[in-house]
Design goal:
- It contains eight helices and two strands.
- The protein is mainly alpha-helical.
- Helix 1 packs across helix 2 and helix 1 packs across helix 3.
- The longest helix is centred in the last third of the chain and has 17 residues.
- The protein is elongated.
- The two termini are 18 Å apart.
- Pfam families: Rrf2.
- This is Rrf2 family transcriptional regulator.
């Protein structure tokens, strides 16, 4: 459903939110290990998200990635938009360019509801709020 880049971005941001809630910063090696991702790939993703203001980073010996208060309140939908754009929320379920209300694809009306539900789920899921279940081992981010 999401691109691999988007999947890693979401997992990384939830992991960073958990590990930096007390003001700490976390490095790429620990993030990659914590979410079971290739180090160079997650580094590239996080650098891009940092440039877009989705998360914060600091250089130097005490540097690393972290989320400030505002970033913790971001929805998963905002991350999806930053990485994959709006296509998943607006695009055709079959990938057709001309799919619309007047010229629907075979699954247009059913997929419209799926898109709406997915958007609502992701808008309501805030990065910082997802860390509690993670800390209580009720959910996980690693295979």
């Amino acid at each position: 459903m999401f691109s691999k880049t988007c999947e890693y971005a979401i997992r990384a941001l939830i992991f960073i939110a958990q590990k930096t809630k007390d003001g700490d910063r976390i490095g790429i090696k620990e993030i990659a290990k914590g979410i079971d991702s290739p180090e160079h790939f997650i580094a590239k993703i996080l650098q891009d998200l940092s440039k877009k203001g989705i998360l914060q980073s600091a250089k130097g010996p005490t540097g690393g990635f972290y989320l400030d208060k505002a970033s913790r309140k971001q929805s998963l939908a905002s991350i999806v938009r930053a990485v994959d754009g709006d296509k998943i929320f607006q695009g055709c379920g079959l990938g057709l360019k001309q799919c619309s209300e007047t010229k629907p694809c075979p699954i247009h009306h059913e997929f419209k509801k799926v898109r709406k539900d997915l958007l609502q789920i992701l808008e309501n899921a805030k990065v910082g709020a997802l860390t509690d279940a993670l800390e209580n081992s009720m959910v996980f981010l690693k295979r």
